[in-house]
Amino acid sequence: MVNQEDPRVLRTRQLIREAFRNLLRNKEFEAISIKDIAQRATINRATFYAHYEDKYALLEEFTEQAFRERIPAQVVNAKEFTDEICDQLILLTHHYIVEFYQICRMDSKSIAAFVDDKLKRILQQIIESILLKDVNRRTANRQHTKIISAMTGSAIYGAAHSWLTVGESGRTDLLVDIVRPYVMNSLAPLPTAPPPSTQ
Predict the structure, then answer these.
(1) Mind listing where the DNA-binding region sits, in residue ranges (predicted)?
(2) CATH number given to 70-186
């Protein structure tokens, strides 16, 4: 097992990810072999397998790391799910999708679905983390928060993804204006029922 903190390990993983990114620009994911990645990264196949189980594990890490690197500190540290936080998540997701789908060759529906699912799960985690800290929207049931976060993440992702094909190019302000009210209304706290009458 490799030591993940070793600078040489970090450097090798970076070389592998860069090689993978460059290959994705020119080839479909299914057509990329471990040999291709290893050659581009100037390592041997055994070194690749010391770091990743297969190219799917690499794709998963590549997708998650590239997305998480773009998350502003304001979102990571948010204690409330505000309009501004919602806007940032919408824009972040849209910009990431544009870059990932336009720069990388994601012609395979199965791989596109894999990436879509991964991003939805990351959004769910981010939203859940914020909602658990948000006293205005916190629910007594952790499972309910998880479900609400999954629905909210899917809504943001679905809208940002659809904007690529049905939206007005470059009008991300309009995207935000459409999506934010939908998301924020769905997260509005439920009215608290009055206590039962004792009379």
Answers:
(1) 33-52
(2) 1.10.357
